[in-house]
Amino acid sequence: MKEKIRQINEEIDRLVAENHEHLEQLRIRFLSKKGLIPALFADFRNVAPEQRKEIGQALNSLKQKAAEKIVSLKDHLEQGSTAEASESDLSRPAEEINIGSRHPLSLVRNRIISIFQNIGFNISDGPEMEDDWHNFSALNFPPEHPARDMQDTFFIEKADDYKKQVALRTHTSSVQVRMMETTEPPIRTLSPGRVFRNEAISARSHCIFHQVEGLYVDKSVSFADLKQILYYFAMEMFGEETKIRFRPSYFPFTEPSAEMDISCILCKGEGCNVCKYTGWLEIMGCGMVDPAVLKNCGIDPEVYSGYAFGMGIERIAMMIYSVRDIRYFFENDQRFLKQFTSAY
Ligand code: DAH
Question: Which residue has the least CA distance to atom 8 on ligand 1?
Fold first, then answer.
């Protein structure tokens, strides 16, 4: 009997519980009705009377020790780090991992990029802080030209000499200039990026937004090439049945200039409140690069011609996803952001 008590004591000292299930098995082994310790108590009546006092005490303290050990193992399991617990319990269900999602503006931008990459456009970018030359002057905005007022600008450095002014770029057309200055034609480039305008923030406009600029310069590029490429884009982006139309417009850096509309993606041209019952949605500005701009950038307009286009990413994202307020894109509210999985 004494030997058995000693063995069980030792065993209890060494006990470790791997998990709650294992702990329960240990409790049953030592303390349940048919467990080792109650069995010893059952044997107690066979102990010689002169040993009863000593063995009785040893048995009682063994029982107490076993009970305390079970409690302390339980505490340990519960306090132990989750990592420790999950390492040892392979049956534990996996914890849900919260995977982030792409921002809707990134989805739309990436979709636009891949459509143009498929036909040989490369991707370019320039600085968000621009000098006057790249944002305005090279693009044919004369100093007093009203078009400069069209774009209310955030100036970083205001100077008496407008040529020395530095501002946050008001459009990605500035990247056109940088590309033409540094690259020999043929140039076929797409420049996505963030732009800034000093505008009041409302449901329809923001002081920070995103544009994608496209530029193609080569020998004998014509307006027909521009129309065809934009038709391809519209079908890829909005669906094969999409129709396009061009309206004459004005930009200082293109001649001729146009606005391109697509047939309304919601009502397919029937007329609805999104297209204001016109059946058309304005999607981008475009035109043939003005020869003066080519010249400003060191490209001979007698040899080369080009087309350019520019569109707003927020505007397109709002159409595709039926988002009514541009501010949602900048608030980082998870409830909004997690709804978007693809730009199709
Ligand atoms: N830069 C113009 C804007 O911000 C958009 C634009 C119009 C870009 C016509 C172009 C273009 O390249 O050809 O409104």
Answer: 310
Average pLDDT of the residues in 106-124:
97
Residue whose C-alpha is closest to residue 263's, from 287, 237, 288, 285? 237
pLDDT of residue 344: 56
Whether residue 83 is predicted with pLDDT greater than 70 in this model: the reply is no
Ligand 1 atom nearest the C-alpha of 171 is 4
| Cα(178)–Cα(125) distance, integer angstroms | 9
Taking the centre of ligand 1 as the mean of its atom positions, its distance from the CA of residue 213, in whole angstroms, is: 7
Which is higher by pLDDT, 189 or 52?
189
Q: Is the CB of 310 under 6 A from ligand 1?
A: yes
CA distance 302 to 237: 34
**Rounded to whole angstroms, how far apart are CA atoms 289 and 257?**
9
Q: CB of 285 closer than 6 A to ligand 1? A: yes
Please tell me the total number of residues recorded for the chain in this structure.
344
| Pocket of ligand 1 contains residue 135 by CB under 6 Å | no
Q: How far is the CA of 136 from the centre of ligand 1 (A)?
A: 12
3-state secondary structure of 199: coil
pLDDT above 60 for 84: no
Q: State the Cα–Cα distance between residues 9 and 65, nearest whole angstrom.
A: 8
141 Cβ inside 6 Å of ligand 1 = no
